[in-house]
Specification:
Helix content is 49%, strand content 15%. It is of the alpha/beta class.
Length: 586
């Protein structure tokens, strides 16, 4: 047996030798100071550890809450669109923060369990509740639907998270602060950190979304549920099983093969089929077939990027279901001096969609460069819409690309097609004076540009955009895709939403079109009917065009203030283009 450990006797040193008592008063006082210092150091160390735990736990709760608020926002966008989903999002959060911070004591006293133990349960049920609420989006409408959905999902999560943060920060030692500040410091600091994390996590989320299965909307919600469960382990987690089972096996928004198969079984019953889908930096992207009507479309959140008829034989190029993309091809028909033949011409296409216009340019033998920000859109255009491979692809933000390449590509392109996805709210930087001047810099002296802008004739932004285009390019003509509706129709609908195509030249000569010949149609029936623009628009008919001015980088609020109204109108239009259940099922 090992020898028994001897406990030092009182007054002895650890080595077993008797401890030498202090010989003088000075030695005694020095030893007292040493012992006091050691005790003080130990007390400070314990205090520092305790405060680190307090602030660390509070920071973790703030981070989870801020990041989850962004995932909630992204989960709404396929059903309501990005702008309607964002409109009231911050108000829901502010209300929840106020309620949670003010009611933490009441919750702590009335709830049968600790507040933090309810967070995993609420997080687990959010995907399931969203799934059922989305089926009532037509009833709720785009104006209030997102707020109603978040009030029943995100709101309780933020309320309880905020109450937990308030509980935790009650143990924070603020004795070093003036009393006038100490009372409000925890709340103000937590709110400031929340805003900073919310902004940073949104940027990170948009950069990473869709890069793996774990970084999709529903998967991220499950990740947050798991994280909350680790922070608040309890027997109550058993009550989360029904929600988790529904998400795993019945939620068609989950990006699993089983969920996709389940969704297709529902869609097939109504004459539709989901070809493919994924999530990316511009939104939820999917390709759908209507095999009863005979067409295929690509969707991004609550908008369509384009479509082709499948019931007509494909010859050289596909038959587009929207005439606007065909009309953009009329950029080739604009008459300019010393025009290069197609086999010597170069074209730049900003924005891809399903690739209708660039495919036609390539078919005409034009050396075409495509700039597209979304890699999934580009991939799906190749896989499912026959985008030809003989082109130059740039998968990058058009603004940064143009800024860094404008000098190398000075007067390089004969044609530029500016056709960016708007989704009811224009990507403002792509219509600023500065960006358009970058494109003008790349256009040859006798070059032609065609710009597509989806806007509402009853709102000022369209006039502002046209003013900006005409400020940069000296000679332009404006057309709308469809025949103008009657004033009675506009008054009844409260909107006049349409695609507007602006053809401009770099030279000062008037914009005229040569007659189309058979080769221009590429053996396409759609192009025979719609290649030549028909419905010209005169600037005097645009709302607010005279006094609106132009759009500059530091004046983007001119358009931003109209985002909400334009996006709500676009949402209503999209609900007439495809059946409601298609948008709700995503």
């Amino acid at each position: 047996m090992p020898p028994k450990k001897q406990t030092p006797k009182k007054g002895s040193s650890q080595s077993g030798r008797p401890k030498k008592p202090p010989e003088t008063k000075e030695d005694f006082e020095a030893e007292l100071k040493l012992l006091a210092g050691q005790a003080k150091e130990e007390t400070w160390s314990n205090w520092a550890i305790q405060q680190s735990i307090v602030y660390g736990k509070a920071l973790a709760l703030v981070t989870l809450m801020a990041a989850y608020s962004n995932v909630s926002l992204l989960s709404l966008s396929p059903v309501y669109g990005q702008i309607p989903a964002t409109r009231l999002h911050q108000r829901v959060i502010w209300s929840a923060l106020f309620v949670g911070w003010g009611a933490n004591i009441v919750l702590r006293q009335t709830l049968p369990v600790k507040t933090i133990k309810l967070l995993p349960l609420i997080a687990a049920y959010i995907p399931m509740v969203q799934y059922f609420l989305f089926q009532y989006s037509e009833t709720f409408g785009a104006e209030l639907g997102p707020a109603i959905t978040e009030s029943l999902t995100l709101f309780p999560l933020v309320v309880l998270s905020t109450a937990c943060i308030a509980d935790v920060l009650e143990d924070a030692d603020l004795s070093g602060l003036p009393k006038s500040i100490a009372g409000s410091a925890p709340g103000l600091s937590a709110y400031t950190i929340f805003n900073l994390i919310q902004s940073a996590s949104l940027r990170q989320l948009l950069a990473q979304i869709g890069t793996s299965m774990m970084q999709t909307r529903v998967s991220l919600q499950l990740v947050f549920t798991s994280t909350y469960s680790i922070m608040a382990r309890s027997k109550l987690l058993a009550w989360a099983l029904p929600a988790l089972v529904h998400t795993a096996f019945f939620n068609t928004h989950f990006m699993t093969p089983m969920a996709t198969s389940s969704l297709n079984s529902t869609l097939n019953a109504s004459g539709w089929s989901l070809v493919d889908r994924w999530e990316s930096n511009t939104g939820y992207i999917s390709v759908l077939d209507s095999y009863q009507t005979g067409f295929r479309v690509m969707r991004c959140d609550h908008s369509l990027l384009g479509g082709e008829w499948t019931k007509f034989p494909r010859r050289i190029v596909g038959e587009p279901i929207y005439s606007v993309f065909t009309q953009l091809e009329a950029v080739r028909l604009v008459q300019v001096p010393n025009k290069a033949p197609d086999n010597e011409a170069k074209a730049l296409n900003i924005g891809l969609g399903i690739g209708t216009t660039p495919s036609a340019l390539i078919a005409h033998g034009i050396n075409t460069t495509i700039v597209e920000i979304d890699p999934v859109v580009y991939d799906f255009a190749q896989k499912y819409f026959h985008l030809p491979s003989n082109h130059t692809a740039v998968i990058q933000d058009a603004i940064s690309w143009s800024q860094s390449n404008k000098d190398d590509l000075h007067e390089n392109y004969d044609y530029i097609v500016h056709d960016v996805f708007t989704g009811g709210a224009e990507p403002i930087p792509l219509f600023t004076d500065e960006f358009l001047r970058n494109l003008k810099h790349m256009l040859k002296p006798n070059g032609v540009i065609a710009i597509n802008y989806a806007g509402d004739f009853t709102l000022p932004p369209l006039g502002i955009v046209i003013n900006t285009i005409k400020e940069v390019f000296p000679s332009c003509r404006i057309f709308r895709e469809n025949e103008p509706p009657s004033s009675e129709t506009v008054a009844e609908a409260g909107r006049d939403f349409d695609n507007v195509i602006v053809f401009c030249t770099k030279a000062t000569v008037p914009v005229t079109f040569r007659p189309a010949i058979e080769a221009d149609f590429l053996q396409s029936l759609s192009r025979k009917g719609y290649l030549f623009p028909k419905y010209e628009v005169y600037q005097s008919s645009l709302l607010g065009s005279e006094e609106a001015g132009i759009l500059r980088v530091n004046e983007t609020e001119k358009l931003a203030e109209w985002h909400d109204q334009g996006a709500l109108g676009h949402w209503a239009v999209m609900r007439t283009v495809l059946p409601v259940h298609i948008w709700e099922s995503w």
